[in-house]
């Protein structure tokens, strides 16, 4: 299986529409890959909080239109990273609907086959944590040779989410991110940990550049089910392409069946 992770640099001097066109062109250049992955919130920048509401769009908005066409033109499965989604308000509600950090996945025919609203929002009591709503549902996507489990950036710190994805059949964990440079060591460590503990491939695609004064880590990474790094990008904008054997997941889980020894649901200790 051939995957291309497009580590996009978010330049504050580039308009969102210009970036959409540029990224669509980069996706088209990946014809021949099976799967293409984009980063988190690449339209605005993950730390450009003041732009979330300004650039929010519905699921079938301008980014959907551009990425659906690019996926179809290239004939690839496309995880189009995430966008600030403006949800349709509830019937009878006044004003605009809530915002979500939402990932979009397209088939090679350009159909939107899945979306995932980020469950764990970063910022504690500010930023994304207060501006965005929390997703409630796990999401997986069945490809011809593997099943994707979807997560986003800060989700990487919560292993229980990935256990849920594995229980839902995930074999390849796809994680778009806008991870800051100052915590890059955590990015690499956690990506490898999620691969090892779930015996799955991890495709973690970050951004380059600086978002609202926050330098980005870059260093998108592909990790195999044994925790070996198959490929890693540098700090700048880059297309990271790697070939991997999707069948290695089943082989690893058979050779070293650690997942079968999970002991969740035990009785609490008696006092």
Structural commentary:
The chain is an alpha/beta fold. It has one domain (2-86, 97-259): 4-Layer Sandwich (Nitrilase/N-carbamoyl-D-aminoacid amidohydrolase), CATH 3.60.110. The chain has helices at 16-28, 49-55, 62-74, 128-131, 159-167, 184-198, 248-255; strands at 2-7, 9-10, 35-37, 77-86, 99-106, 112-117, 140-142, 147-150, 172-176, 201-205, 208-211, 214-215, 221-223, 229-232, 238-243. It has seven helices and 15 strands. A six-stranded mixed beta sheet has the order 6-5-4-3-1-15. It has a six-stranded mixed beta sheet with strand order 7-8-9-10-13-14, with helices on one face.
What characteristics describe this protein?
25% helix; Nitrilase/N-carbamoyl-D-aminoacid amidohydrolase; six-stranded mixed beta sheet; alpha/beta; 271 residues
- CATH homologous superfamily - what is it? Carbon-nitrogen hydrolase
Return the average pLDDT rounded to an integer: 95
**Any low-confidence stretches, pLDDT <50, length ≥5?**
none
Structural class: alpha/beta
Distance between the termini: 52 Å
H/E order of the elements? EEHEHHEEEHEEHEHEEEEEEH
Concise description?
The protein has 271 residues and is α/β, with parallel strands linked by helices. The N and C termini lie far apart (52 Å). The chain has a single domain (2-86, 97-259), classed as Carbon-nitrogen hydrolase (Nitrilase/N-carbamoyl-D-aminoacid amidohydrolase, 4-Layer Sandwich).
